[in-house]
Design goal:
Layout (H helix, E strand, L loop, with lengths): L4 E5 L3 H12 L3 E6 L10 E5 L2 E4 L13 H4 L9 E3 L4 E4 L4 E4 L3 H12 L1 H25 L5 H8 L10 H9 L2 H8 L3 H11 L12 H5 L10 E3 L4 H13 L3 E4 L3 E7 L2 E7 L4 E3 L2 E4 L3 H8 L2 H10 L7 E8 L16 E4 L3 H12 L8 E5 L14 E8 L11 H19 L7 E7 L1 H8 L36 E3 L13 H13 L1 H14 L1
Parallel strand pairs: 1-2, 1-13, 2-9, 6-15, 13-19
Antiparallel strand pairs: 3-4, 5-8, 6-7, 10-11, 11-12, 14-17, 14-18, 15-16, 16-17
Helix pairs in contact: 1-10, 1-16, 3-4, 4-5, 7-8
């Protein structure tokens, strides 16, 4: 067994990122994935003839700010991002608010819908909170050690002239309180709250302020849609991995991790093959990695601390004969994330029903219509539309089962679009429903939790997934590492945890890696 052999458990985008960075440094890397489709929740399949449909994520936000795409030269591997500009569109009864990358255009839209006061307030808000979040994002780029976090976050908000106590108060306040402090018009506050809630926590909870503040970075770089679907990112990562000599094994996931004393020795796959390796990276859910390890005490300790939660939401994937025809829409509208929440009160009601274990009476919806500008997603004259709904509980308290109510709840999401784009429901020709239970079955997302672990403040940074496991290493098991949405910086299409886990491996193996590099230099 070579010290330079590594197995990555899980073929999601974070696992693939980790594999690429290790293979680039000379490791012999194999990724093992139970699914027959690469990418996990960042994958695209032909759902109906001629329709390429995402299985999980669709819009990529965070990874575009990490530099990973450029560092791994993924455009050479077929990845082409199409900018979502405008990146947000919130229709109301007789107006809309459109968020462009260009701040001036955004403020013009806000002024038209909400007045000059809120347009000026938004400009000041973006200037302030984008500067703060450039520092926060720096903290997302590496291991969440106290020293590193301190260096990254030092000087956050220094341009405001506010003291540390006041800045701390603002970060620990609820997003709703922050919005009420800065803005007057309820429509603007609703649009920003709904966008901020996409990580899971509702904006009336404490320490959610920066979930809204974070969105200001989209005025610096917009979200992107990979041409051909979300899975093109994963396919590009596979191509890059293969160019470095790495391999991906589909349809044969990990059945167990093997160890000798305090060292990991490899992975036994479901087909019974033993892949020997001195390095194993668990890129699946943290609890799954510990189950494979078979350390009952550590597993139970972690299970007690980690909050998977009761799901977040569900999605419907639609094949349609037309786009949603919002009364104030223009052609560029269909690039945007369409924020279809009528009010913050409606958001609170949906969350309240979720808290009670009930499906929402009227779900808050977010629609995406990327076939309007990407002709690879649907046949000519047709469209592929995704509608995400929040909040939908995994465990229902009313005695119903998701299998029996899936179509009913999926239809509610179609109706949520139809309320603001009359006639849309009549354009739907096919509907694929992904309830929280379906997300678990299809994508392995435990309890339908798309972030693996809840994204509350006490589950972030050096507390994610637990303080014991926050450094991408498993204490007491040499050679076993963690990455993925369970680890810092969390869920979404990010890639940062995969890169950070690879860095941890390289730091621990630096003599071996240096020796390998020297050998390559001598051979060259």
């Amino acid at each position: 067994m070579s010290q330079d052999q590594a197995v990555v458990v899980g073929g999601g985008h974070n696992g693939l990122v980790a594999a690429c960075y290790l293979a680039r440094e000379g490791f012999d890397v194999e990724v093992v994935e139970r699914d027959t489709v690469v990418g996990g929740a960042v994958s695209t399949v032909e759902r109906w003839p001629g329709y390429r449909v995402d299985r999980g994520s669709s819009a990529h936000i965070m990874i575009r700010h990490t530099g990973i795409v450029e560092d791994l030269r993924l455009t050479e591997c077929g990845l082409e991002y199409m900018d979502l500009d405008p990146w947000g569109f919130a229709p109301f009864v007789d107006t809309d608010i459109t968020f462009h990358v260009d701040l001036d255009r955004t403020c013009t839209s806000i002024e038209k819908a909400c007045g000059t006061r809120d347009a000026d307030a938004y400009r000041a808000f973006v200037t302030d909170w984008s500067a703060r979040n450039l520092k926060v994002f720096e903290a997302f780029q590496g291991a969440p050690t106290p020293m590193r976090l301190g260096r990254a976050l030092w000087g956050v908000g220094k341009n405001t002239g506010l003291g540390g106590i006041e800045l701390s108060r603002q970060f620990l306040s609820s997003a709703d309180a922050l919005l009420d402090e800065h803005f007057h018009d309820e429509q603007l506050k609703t649009a920003l709250a709904w966008l901020g809630a996409q990580s899971g926590p509702p904006t009336h909870e404490p320490a959610t302020a920066d979930l809204v503040g974070w969105n200001t970075l989209m005025h610096l770089l917009p979200p992107g849609h990979p041409k051909g679907g979300s899975g093109m990112l994963s396919e590009a990562l596979v191509a890059r991995l293969q160019s470095y000599g790495g391999r991906v094994r589909l349809g044969d996931g990990a059945a167990a991790l093997t160890r000798s004393g305090d060292r990991v020795t490899g992975v036994v796959t479901e087909s019974g093959e033993h892949l020997r390796a001195a390095t194993v990276v668990g890129a699946c859910h943290v609890l799954r990695t510990l189950e494979l390890l078979g350390d009952t005490a550590l597993l139970e300790r972690t299970r007690r601390s980690v909050r998977v939660g009761n799901g977040i939401g569900m999605a419907v994937r639609l094949a349609t004969s037309d786009l949603p025809r919002y009364p104030t829409a223009t052609q560029e509208t269909y690039r945007a994330l369409q924020l279809l929440a009528p009010s913050r009160q409606a958001l609170r009601k949906a969350h309240g029903e979720w808290s009670a274990g009930l499906p929402p009476t009227e779900p808050a919806a977010l629609a995406m219509t990327f076939s309007a500008f990407d002709d690879t997603l649907a046949p000519a004259g047709k469209h592929s539309v995704t509608v995400w709904g929040q909040w939908h509980p995994y465990a229902l308290s009313n005695g119903e089962s998701w299998d029996s109510i899936a179509e009913r709840e999926g239809t509610k999401l179609v109706e949520a679009v139809d309320r603001v784009a009359p006639g849309f429901a009549g354009s739907v020709e096919h509907m694929h429903v992904q309830t929280p239970l379906d997300l678990e079955r299809e994508l392995g997302l435990r309890q339908g939790q798309v972030m693996h672990v809840e994204m509350t403040i006490d589950s972030m940074f050096l507390w994610r997934p637990t303080p014991e496991l926050a450094g991408y290493r498993v204490p007491g098991v040499v050679g076993l590492y963690l990455c993925g949405a369970s680890t810092h910086p969390g869920g979404g299409v990010f890639g940062a945890s995969g890169r950070s886990a690879a860095r941890a491996v390289l730091a621990d193996r630096s003599p071996t890696v240096l020796s390998h590099v020297l050998k390559k230099v001598r051979r060259g």
